[in-house]
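Technical annex, item 7. During the second reporting period the consortium partners agreed on a shared format for inverse folding records so that results from different sites could be compared directly. Each record opens with the tokenized structure and is followed by the designed sequence. A conforming record, contributed by the partner at site C, is shown below for reference.
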């Protein structure tokens, strides 16, 4: 595909598809958008502005500041410097150049114009993370969540920030909120169970086992959930004063290991699952 010319309409359709799927295939986007915007921008109609925005973000990802500058300039000429979306792109350009103070100033200006814009607030937090100011980012994220409690992405990021600071109890609370927001997301149950497992203790291990089991139920092909279920079941089976369960812990170990062996059957690393099961016995 890279060696074969692509028509402007095919490039447009592919870029549209990537936007719809919210795929950040930055290199491909730049490869498609640059010639398209150079030679066929007038053919795109109003869609050209979505392509410029998409291409600007991708260019920053690919360290193509020259192309990002061209895209940003076109958008600013069209929508003005005070536009929130154009301003956010401007801030991201400054971030990519590590011009932290200028980026911070730009976001503050934007927030004065658009005081309820969640994306601007998130960029301020991303700016702090980019500078490794994790505690400041945690404070800002907590303020953000006070106003946007239903933002699952924010809770996920806050949990990640707490884990960087080894504040497992705070991360646990974040994942509990995420389970309320996304009860059928196996990844959330897995992360929650891992935090509980890391903290240890009879009650935490029993609860971790429950959530690893739920994750495995939601996604039977999740090796992560099955490994977790086997480990926590093995630990609770040998723990004194362990919490009772409808299914004996030893049976859960056996079930999880069998499912892992089935999952890895015929794969190059099949012996890992077998060895893991033997180690737990």
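Designed sequence (site C submission):
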């Amino acid at each position: 595909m890279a060696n074969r010319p692509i028509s402007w309409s095919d490039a447009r359709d592919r870029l549209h598809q990537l936007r719809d799927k919210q795929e950040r295939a930055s290199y491909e986007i730049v490869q498609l958008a640059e010639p398209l915007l150079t030679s066929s921008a007038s053919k795109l109609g109003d869609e050209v502005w979505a392509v410029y925005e998409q291409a600007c973000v991708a260019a920053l990802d690919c360290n193509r500041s020259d192309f990002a500058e061209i895209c940003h300039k076109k958008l600013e000429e069209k929508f003005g410097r005070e536009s929130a979306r154009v301003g956010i792109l401007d801030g991201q350009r400054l971030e990519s150049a590590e011009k932290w103070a200028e980026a911070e100033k730009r976001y503050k200006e934007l927030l004065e114009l658009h005081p309820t814009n969640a994306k601007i607030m998130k960029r301020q937090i991303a700016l702090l993370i980019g500078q490794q100011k994790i505690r400041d980012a945690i404070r800002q994220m907590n303020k953000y969540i006070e106003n946007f409690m239903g933002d699952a992405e924010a809770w996920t990021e806050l949990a990640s920030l707490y884990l960087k600071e080894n504040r497992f109890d705070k991360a646990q609370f974040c994942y509990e909120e995420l389970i309320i927001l996304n009860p059928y997301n196996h990844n959330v149950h897995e992360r929650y169970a891992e935090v509980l497992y890391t903290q240890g203790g009879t009650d935490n291990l029993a609860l971790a086992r429950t959530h690893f089991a739920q994750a495995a139920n939601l996604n039977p092909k999740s090796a992560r959930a099955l490994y977790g279920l086997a480990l926590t079941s093995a630990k609770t089976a040998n723990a004194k004063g362990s919490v009772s369960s409808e299914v004996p812990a030893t049976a859960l170990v056996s079930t999880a290991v069998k499912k892992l062996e089935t999952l890895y059957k015929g794969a190059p690393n099949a012996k890992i699952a077998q060895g893991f099961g033997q180690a737990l016995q």
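The mean pLDDT is 91. The CA atoms of residues 21 and 54 lie 13 Å apart. All partners now use this format for quarterly exchanges.
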